[in-house]
Amino acid sequence: MGLDRAAERQVQQAARVVAEIAEQDDAVYGVNTGFGDLAAVRVPHEQLRALQRNLVRSHAVGVGPLLPEESVRAVLLLRANTLAAGRSGVRAEVIDLLCDMLNRRVHPAIPMHGSVGASGDLAPLAHAALVLMGEGETVANGVRRAGGDALKAAGLKRIELQPKEGVALINGTQVMTAIGCLALHDGEVLAASADVVGAMSAEALRSTDRAWDEELHATRPHPGQQAVAANLRALMAGSPNVASHRRGDPRVQDPYSVRCMPQVHGATRDALAYVRRVLEIEINSVTDNPIVFAEDRRVVSGGNFHGQPVAIALDLAAIALTELADISEARVDRLTNGHTSGLPPFLTPDAGTNSGFMVAQYTAAALLAEDRLRAVPASVQSIPTSAGMEDHVSMGVHAAHKVAEIARNTRDVLAIEALCAAQGLDLLTATTAPGVEEARRVVRERSPRLEDDRTLAPDIAAVGDAIAREVLLAAVRRVIELA
C-alpha cells in the first residue's frame, strides 16, 4: 500500500502553502499558535517544530488496555487516507511512513481510553504519532518495544515534524471510525446470521411461515423488513416440517420473537445501512483542523474533527445489535421452556438427571443484560474540556467501544440460539428445509447432539466462531440465495 502519485502532487502543494505561512507573521491556528484554549498564544518561528513535537508528546496520555492489532491497522490506514486528500498540509513523507508502517507491520501501542471525541481522537492518535517521531511504543505478538527501535528494525526512519504536521496527525475521528467500521462489519454479519438462526428456531418450534407472506410485507415496505421476510421464505421453502402442521394446528399465531423477525431484524438492518452511509462518508473525509485549500492559498479553521456524526451513528448501531440479542434471547427462552415449546424441558431427553440447556439460557440473558447497559447512548454524555473551549464533545470512541462489545455479546447469544435450535430439531426428528438443514449441519460439525449433560462453553465458542467468520452464512448461501 502506498500514496497515489496523483494525490502526492496535491499533498505537496498543500505542504508548500503551510511552509510559506510558517515563514510569515500572521497567526494561523495549528501552524504558529497554541492549541485549544491556548490558541491565542503566538509561537515564535524558531519554536514551530518544537510546538508540533510537544503537541504530540503532551497529548499522548491514553490509559488502559491496548487496542487490538486489527483496530490499530485500521487507524493507520484511515489516517493515511484522510491526509492523502491533500487538505492537511503535511508532506508526502508523513503519509509514506504511515503506509510503510502498515506494510511492515509496525503497530503503535495505542491505549483504549483517553479520547472524548472533541478535536477528534487526540490522545489515541497521539500515541500513534509518537512512533512516527521515533518515540512511544509498538506492540507485536504481545511484546512491546520502543518505537524508535521498531522503526529501525523495519528499515524505516523517523520523521521530524514540520509546522502543522503534529496537529494534522492527531486531529480527526480515525480511532472511533476505525473501531466502528470493524464493528459494523461484524454487525452486518450478525444481522444476516440472525435470519438463519431464527429460521432454525422457527422450524424447531414448528412455527408457521405465513408471517413471511410477500404481499403482507409489501404493505409496509421498509427495505430491511422485506429483505428479512424474503430470507425467511427462502430458508423455510419446501420444509416438510412446516407443511406437516399447516392444517389442524390449534395455534392461531406464533409469539412475537418468531412472528416479528422481519420487523425486528429488518429494523436492525435498516439502522446498520444508515451507519454504513455515515462511515463511508467519514472514512473519505478530511477531519483535520485547520484545513488547507492550496488552490487559493486559504487555511480555514473549523470543526470537522468533531465526532458527533460518527458517535450518533455508532450509538444507533449499539441499539440495533442489542435488539438482535434481545429477540434471539426471547427465542432461546421459548425453545428451552417445556411449558410453551412443545419440546422436552430444557431440550434434554432426560430432564431432571440432566439440566440440558437450562443455564445456557441464563448466559444468553446475562449477555443481553450487558448489551442493554452498553446500549445507553454515549453521544449525549458531553463533558467540557480545554478550559471550556471544547465545551461540547462527542464521546465517539466510547460509542465505538460499546458497539464492538455488543457485537461480541450478540454473536454469543446467537450461538446459544443456534445450539438450542439444532437440539430442538434433533428432538423433533423432523426433516426441514434445505437452508435450515445446512445450518444444522454446520452446528453439528462443531457440537454433537446433547444426550447427557456436558460442558457447553466450548460448543458456544465454536459456533460463535463459525458465525463471526461467516462459515455459517457461506454454507447456507451455497444452498439458497440470501439478502
SSE blueprint and pairings:
Layout: H1 5-22, H2 48-59, E1 63-66, H3 69-83, H4 92-103, E2 111-113, H5 122-132, E3 137-140, E4 143-146, H6 147-153, H7 165-170, H8 174-204, H9 214-218, H10 223-236, H11 240-243, H12 256-259, H13 261-283, E5 291-293, E6 298-300, H14 308-336, H15 338-341, H16 358-374, H17 396-428, H18 434-446, H19 457-468, H20 471-477
Antiparallel strand pairs: 1-2, 3-4, 5-6
Helix pairs in contact: 2-5, 3-4, 3-8, 8-10, 8-13, 8-14, 8-17, 8-18, 10-13, 13-14, 14-16, 14-17, 16-17, 17-18, 17-19, 18-20
Question: Please, could you describe this protein's structure?
Answer:
The protein folds into 2 domains: 5-172, Fumarase C, Chain B, domain 1 (Orthogonal Bundle), CATH 1.10.275; 178-289 and 302-477, Fumarase C, Chain A, domain 2. With 483 residues, the protein is mainly alpha-helical. The protein has helices spanning 5-22, 48-59, 69-83, 92-103, 122-132, 147-153, 165-170, 174-204, 214-218, 223-236, 240-243, 256-259, 261-283, 308-336, 338-341, 358-374, 396-428, 434-446, 457-468, 471-477, and strands at residues 63-66, 111-113, 137-140, 143-146, 291-293, 298-300. The chain contains 20 helices and 6 strands. Strand 5 and strand 6 form a beta hairpin. The radius of gyration is 27 Å and the shape is elongated. The strands form 3 sheets. A two-stranded antiparallel sheet has the order 1-2. The relative contact order is 0.12.
